[in-house]
Design a protein that fits this description.
Layout (H helix, E strand, L loop, with lengths): L2 H6 L2 H17 L1 H7 L1 H20 L47 H9 L25 H7 L22
Helix pairs in contact: 4-6
Bound molecules: iron/sulfur cluster (SF4).
The site of iron/sulfur cluster has 13 residues, from helix 4.
């Protein structure tokens, strides 16, 4: 087993690292804002590629939801699902698109269950991926709240519960 996979199966450790990083970045957010998020983009993007790439197989979607997916990157799902699993999971828990691959969302739910109360975020409904943020820094997008702006025509996730069907 690779060291990355070993760590992925211990989402509590990764959750603690995530929270520590979040706390540090929030504490320096005023300084980062003064320096300019755009100017810092390249630096943060490189940092995320080098750290989250090997660890999570991060695809640099720019709107990280690892904390809501058992610290399992949803963009490694061949369908790029942000809510899952789909209905195609095989009886052995593998992917219908890539039969040799364990379903990313089965892993996500298993790992979320190991995260205690923090794992409950997997029940949140996630909006679709905003492709405009591809290859940008998700940390900077969180701090600047750029990841909260949805394309025109998209409804808020908060409104999904009142959408009428049929
Ligand atoms: S959710 Fe997006 S930012 Fe987070 S690890 Fe996956 S591709 Fe990277």
């Amino acid at each position: 087993m690779s060291s990355a996979r070993w760590l992925q199966d211990r989402p509590g450790v990764l959750d603690a690292a995530y929270r520590a990083t979040h706390t540090v970045l929030q504490s320096v957010e005023p300084l980062l804002r003064r320096l300019g998020f755009e100017r810092l983009g390249g630096l943060f993007e490189t940092g995320e590629r080098w750290s989250k790439g090997p660890l999570f197989d991060c695809q640099m979607c720019g709107q990280c939801i690892l904390h809501s997916t058992g610290m399992t990157c949803p963009m490694t799902c061949p369908k790029n699902l942000r809510n899952g699993p789909c209905g195609g999971v095989r009886a052995n828990g593998h992917c219908e698109v890539k039969p040799e691959m364990p379903c990313v969302w089965v892993l996500a739910w298993e790992r979320a269950a190991k995260m205690g109360d923090h794992g409950n975020e997997i029940h949140l409904i996630q909006p679709p991926v905003d492709r405009r943020l591809q290859d940008t820094s998700s940390w900077l997008n969180t701090l600047s709240e750029r990841d909260q702006f949805r394309p025109a025509g998209w409804i808020s996730v908060d409104d999904i519960g009142v959408v009428q069907h049929g």
